[in-house]
Amino acid sequence: MHPTLLLGHPLTRTGLFCAAVLLISISSSAPAATLPAANRPNVILFIADDVSWDDLGCTGNPTARTPHLDRLAANGRRFDAAYLTASSCSPSRSSVVTGRYPHNNGRASELHQPVAAHLPWFPRLLREAAYYTALSGKHHMTFEAPAAGEAPQPTPFDHVDSGKIPGNSGGHGNWVKVVQERPKDKPFFFWFAALDAHRDWDGDKEWQPERYGPKHEPAAVRVPAYLHDNAATRADLASYYNEVTRFDHYVGRVVAALENEGALANTLILVMADNTRAFPRAKTRLHDSGMKTYFIAHWPAGLAQPGRPSPSLVSAIDIAPTVLAVAGLPAASTMQGVSFLPVLKNPAATVRQHAFSEHNWHDYEAHGRAVRSEGFLYIFNHRPALAWQGPADSVRGPSHQALRAARSAGPLTPAQADVFLAPRPSEELYDTAADPLQLKNLAADPQHRGTKIRLAKLLAEWSDATGDTVPAQLTGDSFERETGAATKAAGATKAAKGSKAAPRGTPAG
Predict the structure, then answer these.
(1) pTM summary value
(2) Which of 31-40, 87-96, 398-407, 493-502 is predicted with the least confidence, judged by mean pLDDT?
(3) Three-class secondary structure assignment of 9-45
(4) What are 185-215's pLDDT values in tens digits?
């Protein structure tokens, strides 16, 4: 790797120093690749579907029951500043698997679209290094067909299944089976992806109280400030909580299976969500209510100071290079993330100063970009005339419709009204610690003019360096914005965005 490839990296002002840091972090884990297969670290990535960062017990929710995730956090590392690159299912997952920003994955920047054919997925690199790789549950990631004369991508997974079994359509029904039936002479990587907690809720009708405990009571749920507190909303949230608890249960079963086999100590477990809950002012938003994820790491043999949370900023694109570093492998030249292995060794370590996120088509026309840095969130919206009401499944849900009814009956609170706001400001700036709900836009505040200018410049430089574009014609709405009813076939006029391939030196932020 040539040091000049990292000159744009924001961790330091000096590219050569940054290159040295990265080379050290890779070489420090390199001996793992020469260890006997049975001794190389295993890795499991658990991904929930549409679960917000603050809907676990260990992240402050007093009602949602997540005892197994809470235990992993208590004995591992909870990351308190982890952010997604997109709060949208397949773009987020594709970004994780390639270690790249959505707009640098080709058409995959938009929902249900494939990743550019030439980009490597990190599970494939593990498989080529003699790891056994499996995906069980929701996949939602595809390749483009290769161009004429190009070879197709090698298979990234040795095993793939839907995770659905009779009586359980949550995507986690085969997880323990995959653990138990794996080849025992190889290290493994498992991508365990639940369909919980994606609308429409199926957990209620498949509920098994002997496994999951009692269902959540609507009266006890915590109603976010953006929602209308009525019976319909509370029932909606209770059903959502039930699926969060079901996901937690199956994570716990996998942990127990590993422990019974004596494999838990040498297994790095990572737990996250692809995006936040499918409720108003959450999924698809660039604000923390949409882009922040819970992130838990558990690794008895490799984690220093277990139980200490970390305030270090990390991005979803950092997962690929981190898992490869843990396996003793270099990051692919196409990857734009940085390894957070130093944070596993020291919760106070810093691996990045900035985190970038984006909002592209997900049921509705959109183009927004955001950067988190210096304790601030800066957003630039290229389609300010349009509301950010959330995806169609959320719009069709009882909570959104209850909010619509409340709007008709009388004035909404500022938090509730923001769901329908149109036009929106082109620029938004928030002090995230002082304003955790991000309701006080400081973009026009003279006292914060310097911060806005710096972050706007940073975002513009990142957009330029990563080949980001704003097409003259974006993919239009496929659903009605007030009701969520379909207006045309989703994805009928996809507009590809961004560059086909960005160099490793592209600023990771």
Answers:
(1) 0.90
(2) 493-502
(3) CCCCCCHHHHHHHHHHHHHHHHHHHHCCHHHCCEEEE
(4) 999 999 999 999 999 999 999 999 999 999 9
Q: Which amino acid is at 294?
A: Y
Q: Give the burial string for 157-184 (b: 16+ CB within 10 Å, else e).
A: bbeebebbeeebbbbbbbbbebbeebee
The sign one gets for the Cα dihedral 437, 438, 439, 445 is positive
Q: What angle do CA 406, 410, 413 make, to 5 degrees?
A: 75
Distances (CA, A) of 456 to 104, 299, 452: 20, 38, 6
CB 234 within 8 A of CB 274: no
CA distance 367 to 103: 11
Widest CA span in the chain: 67
8 Å CB contact between 466 and 391: no
Cβ atoms 446, 340 nearer than 8 A: no
Identify any residues that bridge with 297 across adjacent strands, giving them in sequence order: 77, 270
Which DSSP state fits 159? E
In angstroms, the CA 79 to CA 43 distance is 17
- How big is the chain, counted in residues? 509
Residue 144 per-residue DSSP state: P
How many other C-beta atoms can be found within 10 angstroms of the C-beta atom of residue 21? 18
